[in-house]
Structure formats: C-alpha cells, structure tokens
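Input record, target 12 of the design panel.
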C-alpha cells in the first residue's frame, strides 16, 4: 500500500495525530518499566533459599530475665525436640531467613584492609545445622567436632575469640575468590585471626535484604553454638504433612522443659509461612503494576478507538469517493490499519527512548538495575497488537461505507 496519502492525511490532522502518538509513547515507556519491575518482583519471590522450606518449622522463645544455665538449657531443649515423633532433626540458631533484620559482619581478605571486601550475614551453628536446614554442601566438608565452641565462651572479654573454620555460600566464595577454589583459603571477620574456609554450600539466603540483590547470598556459617537466649530460634525438620503436628508438640515440649521462657506465638510457624509473609510486599507491588498496565492499555485502546471513529466520521464522503472509484472493503480496512500502525510505530520509538530515561531515574534514586533490552520489544509488540485490535472496529465501519455516499451533498 502507498503510504504517501496516509502521511498527507496525518499531516493535515497534526494535533490529533500528535496526541495519539504521545499517548502511545507514554504507555510504552511506563509499560516497559512496569514489566521490568514485575519481572524483578517475581524473581525475588521465586528465589532459591537453599533450605528444605517445605520441611521446616520455627519455634521462637523469649526469656524472662537472665538464665545463667542457658547453654545447658539449650542442650536439654534440643534433646527434647529431637525425641518428638516426626522430627527428623532439630537445631538452634541465632537467626533464620525471611526476616527483616540480620547479624552481619564485614569480611576482609587482608588483616589491615581499610575497606571491607564485602559484608556477610553470620549464622551460628551447632552440629545439626546443615542437616536441619537441608543445605547442599558442594565443596569441602562440614565442621568437625573439635571445631565447635560455645558462643558464650568465645564472646567473653578474656577469650582469644579464635574461630578455626567457616562454611560460606558459593556466591560469597565467587566474590572473594573468583579465580579459584575457596576451600582452604582464609579471610578476616571476627577477631584478629584468619578464619579458614572448610566448606561451600550451594545456596543460603541472608535474613534481610541488606546489600541488595547482589549480596542476597553473602552468608557464612561459623561453628559457634548459640544458646536459646541468643535469638530464641529453634528450627525443626520434619515431614511436610506433619509440620503442624510437630509444631504443636514442639511448643508443648519447650513449655514443659523450662519455666523461664515464653513462646512467641506470632513468630512460631512454618518456613513457608515465613516466606509468604516476607514476600507479601513484592506480591502486592506486582499485582499493583499489573493493574497499572491493564489500565494504561485500556486508556490507550479507548484513545485509538475514539480517534479512529472520529476520523471515519470526518472522512465518510472521502471513503465513499474511494469506494466509487473501485476501492474494495479490504483496501479501506488496510488503509486505517496502516495509518494506526504508522502512528503506533512513531509512538513506540519515542516510548522506547522515554523508557530508558525513566529507567535511568529509577537507577539513580531507587538503586534499580538497568532495564534489559528484552522488555522494549515486548512492550512494542503489545502496543502494536493493541493498536490493530482497537482500530479494527472503526476500520470495519469505514469499509462498510457504500459508494453511493459519494453522490450525496454535504
């Protein structure tokens, strides 16, 4: 089809054409960035934690006053928990994933390093930590019995505070030692002595979002046995279909095993429930952005329909003349579809440039990642399809104009 008559017609209706181009450009820019934001939220929601989440439950305690025998009480609690029917393993830990706070420590490769290489979260572990959480050890080994120490002893002012070993995540290992195997290497974190890496786990997310997506798995496990009073987190691994049963039995067992604690009911739940709560904001934001996209598409479609209907009404006699000169219904239909395609193309081209501009602002003020180029053709195709669907109705009405209209007086 010759587009010169179409361009000539559009130039005679500059204002209307410019408005629809601007509407499409804004829609394209916002939709591309909204799709990107939805994609990032979905990625966060579906992130791999490294845990056997569907098998884990958490019981959190709070002490009433200080317990001088907290270490002994913890051992007694673990023995009681591990003896419950349906419990495959149990451990005590200073923190658990899917919370909004965490224990963190700077990590250096040199003792007198001025700026830390990275900041990692710290999990204190007793002997059942890896088995309970279901972590996948991909290099090295687990801690040996002589490497464990009580945190209450190591943290004393008169203690040398030497930590002989650590297990870190693959993400942290790649960041610290990108050129080789991390096992056997050392780093500085707690105390003045180097800590030797003895193992690497595939995944283990940190409880909080500190450091952003890049640092999401900067986690290290230290062989320090925490007492229940250090966070009050007992984690039990059980069969997925027995989690509620085990959770109730664990609460009853802990209440009967020591009078100087209270169970925090709101924090005592399954890990899947913890994850659901943790990502509630991301799910809500994703659905809100979906609603924004749908709203923009509807408004844009209505704008295209309104403009096309107006032009059909204004050009009725012209269309009749073309029909009288031999133009078929298909040619009239294609004329309006081509016209819309040209307007949409100009709007999309402007919208892509605007999308990158909006993304730069988001990167500067909200630490958002760069917009991948993949989202631009997705938004373009969506608007092209929308434009053709929206213009189809008015174009069909135009194609139905009979040739006799050409003989009528205005």
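The sequence produced for target 12 reads:
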């Amino acid at each position: 089809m010759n587009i010169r008559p179409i361009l000539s017609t559009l130039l005679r209706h500059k204002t209307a054409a410019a408005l629809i181009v601007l509407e499409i450009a804004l829609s394209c820019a916002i939709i591309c960035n909204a799709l990107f934001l939805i994609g990032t939220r979905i990625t966060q929601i579906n992130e791999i934690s490294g845990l056997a989440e569907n098998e884990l439950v958490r019981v959190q305690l709070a002490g009433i006053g200080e317990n001088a025998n907290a270490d002994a009480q913890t051992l007694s609690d673990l023995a009681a928990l591990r003896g419950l029917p349906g419990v495959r393993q149990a451990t005590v830990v200073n923190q658990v994933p899917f919370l909004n706070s965490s224990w963190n420590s700077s990590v250096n490769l040199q003792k007198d390093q001025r700026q830390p290489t990275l900041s990692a979260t710290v999990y204190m572990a007793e002997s059942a930590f890896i088995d309970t959480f279901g972590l996948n050890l991909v290099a090295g080994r687990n801690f040996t019995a002589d490497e464990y120490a009580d945190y209450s002893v190591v943290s004393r002012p008169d203690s040398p505070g030497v930590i002989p070993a650590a297990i870190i995540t693959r993400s942290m290992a790649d960041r610290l030692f990108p050129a080789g195997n991390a096992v056997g290497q050392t780093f500085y974190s707690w105390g003045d002595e180097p800590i030797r890496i003895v193992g690497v786990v595939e995944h283990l997310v940190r409880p909080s979002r500190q450091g952003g997506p890049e640092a999401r798995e900067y986690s290290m496990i230290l062989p320090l046995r925490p007492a229940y009073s250090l966070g009050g987190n007992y984690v039990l691994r059980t069969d997925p279909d027995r989690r509620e049963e085990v959770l109730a039995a664990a609460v009853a067992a802990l209440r009967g095993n020591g009078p100087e604690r209270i169970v925090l009911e709101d924090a005592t739940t399954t890990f899947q429930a913890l994850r659901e709560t943790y990502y509630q904001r991301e799910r809500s934001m994703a659905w809100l952005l979906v609603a924004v996209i749908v709203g923009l598409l509807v408004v844009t479609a209505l704008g295209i329909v309104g403009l096309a209907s107006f032009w059909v009404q204004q050009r009725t006699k012209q269309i009749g003349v073309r029909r009288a000169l031999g133009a078929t219904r298909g040619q009239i239909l294609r004329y309006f579809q081509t016209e819309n395609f040209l307007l949409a193309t100009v709007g999309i081209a402007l919208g892509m440039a605007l999308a990158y501009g909006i993304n730069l602002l988001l990167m500067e003020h909200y630490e958002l990642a760069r917009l991948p180029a993949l989202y631009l053709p997705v938004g373009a195709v969506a608007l092209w399809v929308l434009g053709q669907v929206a213009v189809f109705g008015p174009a069909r009405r135009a194609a139905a104009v009979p040739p006799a209209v050409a003989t009528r007086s205005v």
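The chain is about 50% helix and 15% strand.
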